[in-house]
Every structure is written in structure tokens, then in C-alpha cells.
Target: PTS glucitol/sorbitol transporter subunit IIC
Amino acid sequence: MDIIVSFAEGFINLFQTGADVFIDWMSSIVPLVLMLLIAMNTFIQLIGEERINFLAQKSTKNVFLRYMVLPFLGAFMLANPMVHSLGRFMPEKYKPSYFASAAQFAHTSNGIFPHINPAELFIFLGIASGITQLGLPMTDLAVRYLLVGLVLNFIGGWVTDFTTSYVEKQQGVKLSKEVKLDN
Model:
């Protein structure tokens, strides 16, 4: 009987933990993401969607802008997970690669810009604790992490371009290189 009771308590605790996480998100990350989404859409409306589309189309033609500059600016200004919303302005062909680059950048920029992905700051701080125990400055590590991240995130986006092209050929599909937004 004790086993059944323990199982039932564990089962209920699983859902209680899920509910606690949900309530925590509702008072922290969900309002933040909602406000960032409203700000981004307001910004787009003020500038004009046509201008944003034009800028996005021009930016996607340059691989460095597409996988270095746009993810950096998006992560810095919108933070994680809102950086991914800029993928809306990417042609279908480049969305997987942009996502790969932006997702990686949310991690490699944490040392110098902790606001980008504060939920995972513990990863950088874990590495940094070893550096500080050696008597080395943490800022140097953060800058190097950012610079190496920029290069590797670019490479990740670019390699994903090749992977996407391979899958296109394999599946017999052709993804558009033009930005198409549904209003």
C-alpha cells in the first residue's frame, strides 16, 4: 500500500511542479515576451512594414548580415526568445539557418550581455568561476566568448544553408528566396 501511496504522491507532485513553473513563467517570462512582441510590432508599424521588408530582403542577400549582424542586433535588442521573431522577415530558404545562428548567439553573448538570455547565465558563470579561481579576469573571457561565438554562429548559419539545400534536393522541394509575409 505504501508503494501505491508514494506513487500517487509523486504523480501529483509532478503536476504541482509543472503548475509552479507555469505560474512562475506567467509572472516573469510571459509578460516580458508579450511586451517585447508589442514593442517590436509597434516599431514595425511606425517605420512601416514595407521598409522593414525591404531592409530584410537586402540583408538576407549578404551572408554576413544574415548570420552575424541580424542575430547580434536581434539578440541584443530583443533578447531570447524574441530574437527568433526576426526570422519572420527571412525568406523560407534562410529561416532554418537564421534560427540556428540566433539560437546559438543567445548563449555565446551571455558573458558580456547577460540580459540576452538570463535563464542560462549559469553556464557562463560556471565556466567563469574556473577562470576567476585561476586569477584571470572574467571580462576577457566574456569578450572572447562573444567574438568566438560570432564567428561560430556565422559558420553554424552558413553550414545550415548547405544542409537546407541538401534536404531541398533530397525532398524535391524548392524554398523561396523572397520574403512573403501573411497579413
Remarks:
- The radius of gyration is 21 Å.
- The helical segments are 2-26, 29-47, 49-60, 63-78, 95-108, 121-133, 138-171.
- The first helix runs from residue 2 to 26.
- The chain has seven helices and no strands.
